[in-house]
């Protein structure tokens, strides 16, 4: 049986950016676009060129992708031609091969929000789509409020989308803009649209999660015949979010009846990167990943109930609907120490430390990790700090030097031009063997800008480590993440530092303290020690 | 038209407790049971008496509720009578009028997990349910893995649930234990069960969220004829959670076709307490409430896109599927890069600043916001900093005092017990009118722990503001969030501070700088200035 092709349209960079508190920078947008492209989505909606500076900058710098890069905008306004609408012109000027324009299809919105006649609105849709196709662009029409519009005035809603198709739109996307339409209504109305003469392979579905049914609504539309799904990674989006592609993609690829009936642009083995992509997005947003997220959450394959856990040991299929490894996730059995130890040995081997099965250090390491994680540490990403902790328990951690004390001063005052400026200064005192070394640095970078106290501290620590100096000269601090792990006044700060050296080696370390400078210093120290070990330095 | 009665069965205290990281205390269970009862659910499943000490203690102390308090357990084991099964006896001993027993209905699980014959399992179900009804208890049978079981062996799955009904079970609950069954399959199989002679008003549905369709699956079962829904508050539960009653309840009460077709035990006006109940549960669990949660999330009615915000001002129904007040939530129009002028005016009005449509300050404010957001600021959440920025542009920001300079020192060294300890000290110099004031504070809290440089700075700033001191004494820093907005060495730190005063007023401010101490100081300053304005302080 030949499979129907389903198209996946990602709008993380546009509708996802409508999430309260989310504002991507241009480099962040580029990173996300590259990850989406590597995954294999068909369309990447990059933003609304002209609507805000970051979106315009993104299209100027947009990476070359296999996926169709799409600019978003709105249909031309009444009273001017498509050619003379400056908002539409800015969208066209982004130069993408595909353009998606949103327009009204609900009579109430035409009269209430736009204040124009129903005929004028249809003409705006027609003229705008015709303008796109005349320019050789692939055109999508996002029919805003389509379902509410259809319920209020089915003839008018259909007239709007037929106008778009007649003008050359490749896709008409049925948008449940307010997120209030339930899956059974979505199915029914999608069938009615197809019955009106619009083929399903030109229909897309765009849902929101206001009733927690965005994923189910998308599936219902596909079952009714629609062949494009719009959504976002991690379900980001306006209000309660959009349909979650991080959930929909594995459901479509792994589960029946979809798996047998459809094919997408995503190869099954790409799913193994899904958990990582989801976490990367949370990292960019500095959000705590949602533990209970389907497929990719840390708890998605955690079996806590005693009944479940014991059956899982016999046969994982007893309590798992898919195999966790397929989506790059892992099974967790919180109660099972045995599972803990074999996991740990696997992880130690990854760090080059082969430890036998009954080594008494293994339970000690597990205890230390538990205790530290209770304090706010996280060793999931901070692989290098995990390795140092394990080495210590295994007696494999040399003491290269000792930090006797440090002091950082942050000062803000007026400079000679009467402008407020800040400067930080750090003093670090270390003892190497019998020798005491005092180093001092300040936080100014080459351009004369203040980079803050952690920068000063990092420079002072790495300034003179005597015999080790040659090993650490090429360490570069490439990323620095701060997270408050407990709310309120008892806040504890977790700092994760990513370092890199001239061999392109990259490692992550963690520090935790109520004092952010201390937490940073702990992570910096781990970074230096890890590097010394891997350079083969001898104390 | 007479309405069908739908029954709501809450399992927050049992399946909800299977959430990784969740363990309720007995008093917490009592608080939650009381809230559920006040809301008006029909059944409260309190736990598994005998399975763990808290559950047993809860039933001993359980509050008297209008809702039917239900004890959970499992069907008797093979090779002993229902009367002689000690696990079942512990469940009966809780003395609840209603008892729910889980049992197998999937042949694979009978042979694989239980290791007994298919006939023995049917007999265990029959004998256990008969035992409950003989004791005068209302009996529910949770048919574990029912949907997977039906797909594998429909006759056997049906035999199991018919045995329960024949033995007197009031309800048979079709459980999608692994959460892998999609809504259309749930509908189809539920219809098949009804066609087999089991009436819908004796059928319940119990779904999990492993494909993000637990809510839709419950609705599909109801559309197919089931009349009891099992779920949890905030969608707590094993792995990805159970069907979310916090979403299902307003959908059933407010939205068509449910609103016209069904009645529940929940009065419509009780919905106004829903947001509060959801937050109370998060408080108990010390979790940050999920902003994007349907109906009750802080972002559920946040309109960020410029197009949406301008229409909302004209008529809220344009972008809201229900009225936020009905579920005890509120509309938010956050300020951001995306926003247009009408959005801005609405937001200014929320802050008590009525500004006319063509005030030339409006585009200036928008420009400033855009520029600042490019630098890493975010005004979505930092409402108070937004207000100060707007007041400045409108000439409505008095200068209460001027910060001349500050200095913070962080020192780490050995104390007299030879342990490394840290201490921060801050000096802040302000000018109030012609008077210069120097204040110094350190970072030690009452317990002698170091709280870090920002704490010291905050204390020094608020130590002596002369004539303003009485207005700011009750400011309390309740939350502190740090985010690095650009990766790499050019990292810029964004700090968001939540403050609170003795009136319970809460406000958020933001600061941005490559220097985390500077960013924090900026947010602290905004917090103090906002408070002075709202106290009516005069310079």
From TrEMBL, chains A, B:
Belongs to the alpha-IPM synthase/homocitrate synthase family. This is Citramalate synthase. Keywords: Acyltransferase, Amino-acid biosynthesis, Transferase. The keyword Amino-acid biosynthesis applies. InterPro entries: 2-isopropylmalate_synth_dimer, AIPM/Hcit_synth_CS, Citramal_synthase, LeuA/HCS_post-cat, PYR_CT. The keyword Disulfide bond does not apply. GO terms for biological process: isoleucine biosynthetic process; L-leucine biosynthetic process. Pathway: Amino-acid biosynthesis; L-isoleucine biosynthesis; 2-oxobutanoate from pyruvate: step 1/3. It comes from Gymnodinialimonas ceratoperidinii. Residues 6-272 form the Pyruvate carboxyltransferase domain. Coiled coil: none annotated. PROSITE patterns: AIPM_HOMOCIT_SYNTH_1, PYR_CT. GO terms for molecular function: (R)-citramalate synthase activity; 2-isopropylmalate synthase activity. It comes from the Bacteria. It catalyses: pyruvate + acetyl-CoA + H2O = (3R)-citramalate + CoA + H(+). Its EC number is 2.3.3.21.
């Amino acid at each position: 049986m030949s499979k129907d092709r389903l198209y996946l349209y990602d709008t993380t960079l546009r509708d996802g950016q409508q999430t309260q508190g989310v504002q991507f920078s241009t480099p962040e947008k580029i990173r996300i676009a590259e990850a989406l492209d590597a995954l294999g989505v068909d369309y990447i909606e990059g933003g609304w060129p002209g609507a805000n500076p970051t979106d315009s900058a993104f299209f100027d710098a947009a990476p070359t992708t296999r996926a169709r890069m799409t600019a978003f905008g709105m249909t031309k306004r009444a009273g001017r031609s498509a050619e003379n609408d400056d908002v539409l012109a800015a969208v066209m000027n982004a130069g993408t091969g595909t353009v998606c324009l949103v327009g009204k299809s609900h009579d109430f919105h035409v009269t209430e929000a736009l204040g124009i006649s129903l005929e004028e609105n249809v003409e705006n849709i027609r003229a705008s789509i015709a303008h796109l196709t005349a320019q050789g662009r692939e055109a999508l029409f996002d029919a805003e409020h389509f379902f509410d519009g259809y319920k209020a005035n089915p003839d008018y809603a259909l007239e709007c989308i037929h106008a778009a198709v007649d003008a050359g739109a490749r896709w008409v996307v049925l948008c449940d803009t307010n997120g209030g339409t339930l899956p059974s209504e979505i199915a029914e109305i999608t069938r009615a649209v197809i019955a009106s003469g619009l083929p399903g392979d030109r229909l897309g579905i765009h849902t929101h999660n206001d009733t927690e049914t965005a994923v189910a609504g998308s599936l219902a539309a596909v079952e009714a015949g629609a062949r494009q799904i719009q959504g976002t990674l991690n379900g980001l989006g306006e209000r309660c979010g959009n349909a979650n592609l991080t959930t929909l993609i594995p459901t479509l690829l792994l589960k029946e009846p979809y798996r047998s009936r459809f094919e997408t642009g995503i190869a099954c083995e790409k799913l193994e990167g899904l958990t990582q992509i989801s976490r990367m997005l949370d990292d960019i947003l500095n959000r705590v990943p949602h533990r209970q997220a389907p497929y990719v959450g840390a708890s998605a394959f955690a079996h806590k109930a005693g009944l479940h856990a014991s059956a899982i040991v016999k046969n994982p299929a007893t309590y798992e609907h898919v195999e966790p490894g397929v989506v790059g996730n892992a099974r967790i059995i919180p109660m099972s120490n045995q599972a803990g130890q074999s996991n740990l040995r696997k992880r130690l081997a990854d760090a080059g430390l082969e430890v036998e099965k009954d080594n008494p250090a293994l339970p000690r390491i597990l205890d230390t990790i538990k205790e530290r994680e209770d304090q706010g540490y996280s060793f999931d990403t901070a692989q290098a700090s995990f390795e140092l902790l394990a080495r210590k328990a295994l007696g494999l951690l040399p003491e290269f030097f000792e930090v006797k004390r440090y002091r950082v001063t942050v000062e803000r005052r007026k400079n000679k031009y009467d402008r407020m400026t800040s400067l930080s200064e750090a003093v670090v005192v270390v003892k190497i063997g019998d020798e005491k070394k005092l180093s001092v640095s300040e936080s100014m970078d080459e351009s004369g800008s203040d980079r803050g106290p952690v920068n000063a501290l990092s420079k002072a620590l790495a300034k003179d480590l005597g015999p080790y100096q040659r090993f650490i000269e090429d360490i570069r601090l490439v990323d620095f993440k701060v997270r408050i792990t407990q709310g309120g006044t008892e806040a504890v700060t977790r700092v994760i530092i990513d370092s890199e050296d001239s061999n392109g080696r990259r490692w992550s370390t963690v520090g935790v303290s109520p004092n952010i400078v201390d937490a940073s210093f702990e992570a910096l120290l781990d970074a230096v020690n890890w590097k010394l070990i891997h350079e083969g330095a001898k104390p």
